[in-house]
Design a protein that fits this description.
This protein is mainly α. The protein contains six helices and no strands.
Length: 136
């Protein structure tokens, strides 16, 4: 009986370590993208890794909702995106903020265009909101 418990613990630990390794690669990719996009300093790089890790962890936590409750999934996905924007605003300095603002303006323009198109097709308010949330 003791051997079964030990084997189960070792198996669980090895699976956990494998999941972390995949997560680290994803975190590194997202963080490197943030570093390149905003031209972050070495002092800001740690914050970029924290933001990337938080975003990916939160996305993993809500992934199961994508198939079971699409509306809730999209709401939470949007909340994650907004939280990331707030974190980036705190991280960036005055010279880096215009890049973030430009990205936000571009997103608003895309949202506006989508809303106009959907209204022209006669979509309901809820359908429009879901479509906006689905935008990446």
């Amino acid at each position: 009986m003791k051997y079964i418990v030990v084997i189960a613990l070792l198996l669980g630990a090895s699976i956990h370590l494998q999941a972390q390794a995949v997560g680290k690669a994803q975190v590194n990719a997202v963080a490197e993208d943030l570093i390149a996009t905003y031209q972050l300093t070495e002092a800001q790089e740690e914050g970029a890794y924290t933001i990337a890790e938080r975003r990916l962890r939160n996305q993993e936590e809500i992934a199961h909702l994508a198939s079971s409750d699409r509306k809730l999934y999209l709401q939470k996905k949007n909340a994650i995106r907004q939280g990331e924007i707030v974190s980036l605003k705190r991280l960036l300095n005055q010279e880096q903020l215009p890049v973030l603002r430009e990205q936000m303006v571009e997103r608003r323009k895309k949202e506006s265009e989508l809303i106009k198109q959907m209204k022209a097709r006669g979509a309901t308010r809820e359908e429009i909101q879901l479509a906006v949330w689905e935008m990446e």
